[in-house]
Design a protein that fits this description.
This protein has helices at residues 6-9, 12-27, 31-38, 86-102, 123-136, 156-170, 194-209, 226-237, 260-270, 284-288, 327-335, 343-346, 349-363, 369-394, 398-417; strands at 42-51, 57-68, 74-81, 109-115, 146-150, 218-222, 241-247, 250-253, 280-282, 294-297, 316-318, 339-341. It contains 15 helices and twelve strands.
Length: 421
């Protein structure tokens, strides 16, 4: 039935485009608007030199793709990795447009990346590469144009360098040019754990929807980075039993629930979760298909595919990572009646807190953590209800409902603005 090779199945651009086409068709989207929204508005490719510590010059390739600025400045992270590609950045940029529209915040979508191996680079090399990449794309970013944020292998320090480089060129401090900054440079309280927090709110509502209680809910998490560890910590604190954790170098299982604060400490001092004494060792691939109520893939793309979807036992999947499930796996999970909360809804807590950071920077007035968390919880709760009721009303799965809702919002804005000629 499925004619795709695994390589085609896991191409993130194809995965995005397939869902977009299906949702646009369901919406009866005007053909012209379909063409406008199917492809990114702007794709910037830069090849730039950096002086390495050895005194040699290396040339790096960087991308910044702005999919849409219809609803506001483009918004999206920057990732550093050896396998960054234009197709991946395009897909991630489109996902950002849909994600911002699902949670109804006034941003378009963008993403950036540099092909590099950050693990092999010194701090000095990373700083020089970040500053030169920023200088290469400087006309295209800005608080009113396009606001980058951290993604894989970039962090608060990277954002501080981008903010400083941009500010030096503008001859004034412009902290609203990036989000995910350190708090003393204009970062927001609550931003660091916001994605995990959003996931925990979504889990609460998914459980209510299934008339289940946290105490009876077994959770398995893949990835113990920013998203996975914060989601696990907040869920455990609410009484959920986090029985399994899959990392790339090993997995942990404890049917009574892992002690997450102890695990966070263990990982901080040992650099790995492997060997944590209060759990059994488990095969990380098997954990994905083990018995549980909620599965949270919070590591990377394409982990639920045609190869393992049939064996998934979770009742609910809450996607922490971007693009963890392929289109073919979607169909298999739908046949098995698994309730999937799609990435563009469930991990939107991060960009929502980024929106709060941008608002606070522009006001020059900073909120308490309680204010940030209260507003975040409300947006996640309302967005969950919007998507799930849309799915029920239009008899589609949650992912297609989220796309339909988002595409409709963006298309409506374009129609109201009109086409500039
Ligand atoms: P991170 O680098 O902090 O953590 C990722 C973790 O996953 C690491 O501990 C890594 O060892 C582990 N991992 C990587 N590949 C794995 C594999 N194949 N199997 C098991 N474990 C693996 O990254 P993060 O910020 O937590 O992001 C994780 C995912 O969530 C990414 O897809 C990212 O795009 C997405 N996301 C992040 C945010 C955010 O605010 N950080 C927001 C939205 C979406």
């Amino acid at each position: 039935m499925h004619m795709l090779t695994l390589e085609q199945e896991i191409n993130p651009w194809e995965a995005q485009a397939a869902r977009f086409d299906f949702a646009a068709q369901k919406l009866n989207l005007d053909e012209g608007l379909w063409k406008v929204l199917r492809y990114p508005a702007r794709e910037i490719i830069v090849h730039f030199p950096v002086m390495l510590d050895t005194g040699k010059i290396e040339v790096f390739t960087g991308y910044r793709v702005q999919h849409s600025v219809a609803r506001g400045p483009a918004k999206g992270g920057i990732r550093y990795a050896p396998d960054v590609s234009l197709d991946e950045v395009r897909a991630l940029a489109s996902w950002m447009t849909w994600k911002c529209a699902v949670v109804n915040i006034p941003f378009g979508g963008a993403k950036g990346g540099v092909i590099c191996d950050p693990k092999q680079m010194s701090m000095g090399e990373l700083e020089r590469m970040t500053r030169r990449y920023t200088a290469e794309i400087i006309e295209f970013i800005g608080p009113e144009k396009d606001v980058p944020a951290p993604d894989m292998n970039t962090n608060e320090q990277t954002m501080a360098w981008i903010m400083d480089t941009y500010s030096m060129h503008m001859r004034q401090t412009c902290n609203a040019v990036v989000t995910g900054k350190p708090i003393n440079l204009g970062g927001s309280r609550g931003r660091r754990e916001a994605t995990g927090r959003g996931i925990s709110v979504v889990c609460d509502h998914a459980l209510k929807h299934h008339a289940m209680r946290p105490e009876d809910c077994r959770v398995i998490v893949q990835g113990f980075g920013n998203v996975g560890s914060n989601a696990a910590r907040l869920l455990a604190a609410k009484g959920y039993k986090v029985i399994g954790l899959a990392e790339y170098d090993g997995g942990l299982f404890n049917p009574n629930g892992l002690d997450i604060p102890a695990l966070v400490e263990y990982r901080a001092s040992n650099g790995t979760v492997v060997g944590f004494p209060e759990a059994e060792a488990a095969d990380p691939r098997e954990l994905l298909v083990s018995a549980c109520d909620i599965l949270i893939p919070a590591a990377t793309e394409n982990v639920i595919t045609s190869r393992n979807a049939e064996r998934i036992q979770a009742k609910i999947i809450v996607e922490g990572a971007n693009g963890p499930t392929t289109t073919i796996a979607d169909e298999i999970l739908a046949d098995k009646n698994v309730f999937v909360v799609p990435d563009i809804l469930s991990n939107a807590g991060g960009v929502t807190a980024s929106y709060f950071e941008w608002v606070q920077d522009r006001m020059g007035y900073f909120w308490t953590e309680k204010e940030v968390n209260g507003r975040l919880d409300q947006i996640m709760r309302d967005s969950f209800t919007d998507v799930v009721s849309y799915a029920e009303k239009h008899k589609v799965n949650n992912r297609i409902a989220a796309y339909m809702l988002a595409i409709d919002r963006v298309a409506y804005t374009i129609q109201q603005r009109g086409i500039y000629a």
